[in-house]
Design goal:
This is Nucleotide pyrophosphohydrolase. By secondary structure, this protein is mainly α. The longest helix has 24 residues.
Length: about 220
Amino acid sequence: MADQAPIERLLTEIAQLREHCPWMGALTHSSLVEYLLEESYEVAETIEAGHPDSELLGELGDVLLQVVLHARLAEERGAFTFDDVARGLAAKMVRRNPHVFRPDGSLQEAFPATVEEIVRKWDAVKRDERPERQDPFEGIPDAMPALAKAQKSLDRAARAGVELPPAETAPETEEKLGELLLAVVRSAHAAGFDAERALRGAVRHYQQGIRPDQAGPDTAPS
C-alpha cells in the first residue's frame, strides 16, 4: 500500500477494518452519529481555543474518518461510494458558485467584487435547485442546539425579508454577550427552567408564526 495515494490508502484500510475488526464491522450509520457530533465539536474547540496546528490536523482527520466510514457503509450496501461523495461535492461547488466557475468547471474571466453580490448569486442558485421550498426555515435540523438553531433561523429570516423578533440592545463586545448569555442561563437554572428547552420552544414558535407567503424573493434554504 506504500505506493497508494493517502486517501486511497485510507479507504483500503477502512475496508479491511470493516472486514476483519469485529468492532468496526458492527458499526452502523446510526451508531456513528454520536461520534460525528463529538468529533465536530472537538474541531470547533481546537479552533476556538487556538490549539496548535498539529492538534487541528489530528481532529480534522477524526472528522474525515467519520465521512469515510459512512461512505464505506453505503458502498457495502451498493448505495454510493466515497468517490461519489467527492464527485457530488465538486459538482455542487461548481453549480453553487457561478461567480467563480463556468458550468464546465473552468474559471470565469471576472469575479464579483462584493460579498453581497456573491450571496445573491448563491441564493438564486439554491432557489433554482429547490423551487418547491417556500418555507425559509426548511432544512434547519430540529436536533441542532437551540442557540445555533436560533441564530440560523434569524439569518434565514433576515435573508428572506421576513419579520424579525424584537431585539434588545446588543452588548458592546462578544465577550460581554457571552457573559449575558451565561447570566440568563444561570437565572433559568435558579428558577428551575431548562434554558435549552425554553429557547428551542421560542424558536419553534417564531418559525411557526412565519407563513411561507411572508417570505420575500431572497429566501435561501441551505
